[in-house]
Amino acid sequence: MKIFVWLLLALIWSSTWIFIKVGLEFLPPFAFVSLRFLLAAAVLAPFVLMRKGGGLPKSRSEWKLLGLTGIFQFTLNYSSVFWAEQYITSGLAAVLQAMIVVFGLILAWIFLPGERITAQKIIAVVLGVIGVAVIFIDQLGVHDNMAFAACVAIVFGAYAAAQSSILVKAKAAEIRPEAIVFWQMVCGLPPIIIYSLSTEGSPFDYHWSLAALGCILYLGVIGTVLAFYSYYWLLNRIESTNAMMISLVTPLLAVLIGWLALGETLPKQTGFGGIMIIASVALLVFRKKGLPANKEPNI
Question: Is there a domain that residue 294 lies in?
Fold first, then answer.
C-alpha cells in the first residue's frame, strides 16, 4: 500500500505541472494558486469541521504547529515558486525545488532521532539531484540579479517545504491528515490572497474559460486534497527522506507527460538523467538487506 501511494503521489504531482502551465495562460499566478487552495479548503471543510468530536486543533501547541507549518508549506513554498518563475526557467526552478530532499535529509537528522544520516542516503540524494540537473542542463543559466534573487527564493521555499514536512512528522502523528491539510491552508492562504487582490485585481476581471476552471478543479481536488492527504498519510508511515524523494521523480515524469500530452520537446539527456534519478530512489528502497518477505520496502 505504501509503495502504491508513493507512486500515486509521484504521478499526481508530476501531472500538476501541465495544469499549472495551462491555467497560467488565463489566470495571474497568485490568484491561480489562491483559487486552487480555496477550492481545496472548501472540499475538506465538511470532513474536518463536521467530524465527530470537532475538527479544531485541541491545544495551543497544535494551533502553533499547524499555523507554522501552514505558513512554511503554503505561504512561503508556493509563493516563492510562483514569484520566481517570472524570472527563471521552469527547468531551473525544478532543479532548485529538488533541494527539498537535501534539506529534508539534514532536518530529519536534527528533529527525528530515529532517522540517521548515512553514506547511502547522501549518495542517493546527491545522485537524484544531479539527475534532475542533467535533464534540465540547458535551462540552468542565471543572467541577471532578479534571476539570482528568484533562485534564492526557490531554495528558501524548498527549505520551508522540507521544514514543514519534518515538523509534521515529528509532532503531528496524532492529527488526522485531512485536518493537517485544512488548517495549514487556513493559516497559510490569507497572505497569498491579500497579495493577489492587491497586485492582480479582482477575480471578476480575469480571463475565465472552461480550461481555467478545469485546471483549478484538478489542482484543487486531485493536486491538493488527494495529494496532500496521501502525502501526510504516507509521511507518518515511512522515513521522511523517502517520502521527499518524490520531489526528485516528479520533474522526470513531468517532462515525459509534457512530451506525451502536449508534444513538448523531450531533452535528449532525459534518459541519462532519468537513470540517475531511478538509481537514487533504488538506493533508498533497497538499502536494507535481508528484508523479511512479508515486510514492505522502505517506500
Answer: no
Alpha-carbon Rg of the chain, whole angstroms? 19
Determine the structural domain holding residue 137 and report its residue range: 2-285
User: For the chain, first and last CA: distance in Å?
Assistant: 9
Task: For residues 172 and 232, give the distance between their C-alpha atoms in angstroms, rounded to a whole number.
Answer: 10
Three cell numbers, residue 266: 523531450
Q: d(Cα 30, Cα 35) in Å, to the nearest integer? A: 9
- Whether 42 is covered by a domain: the verdict is yes
Taking a C-beta distance cutoff of 8 angstroms, is the pair 72, 164 a contact? yes
Q: Are 223 and 19 in contact (CB under 8 A)?
A: yes
Over residues 91-147, the pLDDT tens digits come to 788 888 889 999 999 999 999 998 989 999 999 999 999 999 998 888 777 888 898
Q: How many domains does the chain have?
A: 1
Is pTM beyond 0.85? Reply is yes
Question: Amino acid letter at 47?
Answer: F
Q: Match 549518495 to its residue by C-alpha cell.
A: 123
The verdict on residue 260 lying in a domain is yes
